Amino acid sequence: MNDRGFFISLEGIDGSGKTTLKENIIKELGRNHSVVGIREPGGTLVSEQIRDLVLDARNSGIMGKTEALLYAAARSQVVEEVIRPALNRGQIVIADRYMDSTIAYQGYGRGLDLQFLFDLNRICTGGLYPDVTLYLDIDPLEAYCRRQGEVQDRLEQEGLEFQARVRGGYLVLAASEPRIKQLDATQGRQQILDQALDLINTGLLSRNRN
Known about the structure:
Blueprint: E1 6-11, H1 18-29, E2 35-39, H2 45-55, H3 64-88, E3 92-96, H4 99-109, H5 114-125, E4 132-137, H6 140-146, H7 160-176, E5 180-184, H8 189-209
Parallel strand pairs: 1-3, 1-4, 2-3, 4-5
């Protein structure tokens, strides 16, 4: 691995299995690499406080643009405080959500202007894109059934139609962005992990050759 490190993001609607996959990838890659894992929003003290605010179901009055700006603020903090320094140290960073969530949720889900959100992403990240993004695709109804019995946060309470719009946004992004690799989230955990590791190792080998 070169001095710049390697940046992986995981994307998908709620209930797609991102968190489980992140934990398993960290376990596997951690055998041979130094790995830093974060979640979005979150990953720093400030970003976690923003997470509490934006996901609190009691804050139902948060407007779509306000929501996008809050996510961007949390992302800016974790990029500068955690992600960029880790990459500069040559570490692997794996993020449970990153910039594509903004396009899918606030763009396709909320209907905000996509160009505004692309610009916002560029500003809050300083142009830092993942080397590879693994998108876990799943039907919203199946994802909803997986989450039965869990306490739902503010976005999870938006319902199946909202999640369907978000999924549609992810599918558009996956079809247009070469760095986004689509995985079938209905497969078994080991099968998904094996496919994810193959994609990551391919990316690592390619980066090492450059």
